[in-house]
Amino acid sequence: MARGDAEFVEFARASSARLTHAAFLMTGNHHHAEDAAQTALVRTYASWSRIRNGDPYGYARSVLVNHLVDTWRRPIREYPSDDLPERRGGDMAEEVATRRWLVTALGTLTARERAVVVLRHYFDLPEAQVARELDVSVGTVKSTSSRALEKLRTAGLSAPRPQETCR
Amino acid sequence: MTEMDELRRAMRATERADGLDIADIMRRGRRLRRRRRIGAGVAAAVATIAVAVGVDAVATRPGPPDLPAGEPVATASTGTPPPTPTAAPAPTESPLRPLGTVVDSGIRYGADARVFFMVPVDVPELPRVTIGLVAGRRAPDGHLTSDFLVNDVSGSDRRAGFHEIGYDQQRVPTDTSIPTFGYFVGPAARIVGTVDGRQVEAKLARWSEDPEVVIFWFDPETLTPGTPLDGIIARDPQGHRL
């Protein structure tokens, strides 16, 4: 395997779960999320020689977000509640409850609001970078983020708390 | 804890450790890379009207060198196997030539002109897809550079209606940003896109080889390259929607 390929494999292994989860947060659907993450990584690999020494994760994230935004722009779209994933250990009830809350909470937001929320609060990007990646102004990012937060407040949603362990 | 804090915690707490099929990703990435090279290979000093090159010849001729870093390149689909060059790169030979006239958009990048032209494509499982549309640049000496190739990924490239639309993939504007472009098959006299509730009118040119094929693009001044359209319609000379 060429050195560049080995580097990409390492990069893909390290980033695929996070990219897939970000796509899930933006779509609410695991199948769509995996497709989107795969598409982002395919395009990243296709451009690997010119981006590997820069910010490949930023490139993959940007491709992912743009791909999803393009998908939302199509006439028919939906935000389905997804079938729950298989559990792989840990507290199943708690994660299921949290995931359900998350899908419901994000489902109250528009596509752009979800994208802003995910980029700002999952990827922890500064507002200016969110604006660049979504091709909107910083003011739009601020107002969209504020509107999203207000919607969550209005909906009165409250995330399930991790359960305390009693001894 | 605020709502956003709760959301942030929940987003992290539900991360899964799933892995994707990296071998499949790399296979598809290689196909996409080859396809980009084919699209980029339309670099040749040509007259504005060129002779169509046979598909078989295209598929077996050498490919050009990869695009320079930072050049905006992408295709409308990653799922379609591209024509595959079988020989080593030979930069002096042009593997593809435009089909029909090269359309000058009137958009300039210094001395270079933004142009659009059809090229032959070969998609093994899609025998009715034989052409793709390239957004390229033409230098003053006639040298053509391909920036972006789009082609259908299903059905026929001559079915009535809109076909694949090409968007600049760079969210940050560059000196050579690619206008949103594509083609429509039918008697379109106007093509109008909608974005954020605003209507933007495309510029049109009929393809010399088939007047039913209408090549269109949106001026970057009216539609920022890379901005996805919310909708697009075509109207005939009487104003009826097609």
From TrEMBL, chain A:
Gene Ontology terms: biological process: DNA-templated transcription initiation
Lineage: superkingdom: Bacteria
Chaperone found in the keyword field: no
CDD domains linked: Sigma70_r4
Cited NCBIfam families: SigE-fam_strep (TIGR02983), sigma70-ECF (TIGR02937)
Occurrences of domain RNA polymerase sigma-70 region (ranges): 17-74
Every RNA polymerase sigma factor 70 region 4 type domain range: 100-152
One GO MF term attached to the UniProt entry: sigma factor activity
Pfam family membership, one: Sigma70_r2
Keywords: DNA-binding, Sigma factor, Transcription, Transcription regulation
Family designation: Belongs to the sigma-70 factor family. ECF subfamily.
Official protein name in the record: RNA polymerase sigma-70 factor, sigma-E family
Species of the source: Micromonospora tulbaghiae
UniProtKB/TrEMBL annotation, chain B:
Keywords: Membrane, Transmembrane, Transmembrane helix
Originating organism: Micromonospora tulbaghiae
Region annotation (Disordered) ranges: 62-99
Residues that span the membrane, as ranges: 38-59
Lineage: superkingdom: Bacteria
Name used for this protein in its record: Alanine and proline-rich secreted protein Apa
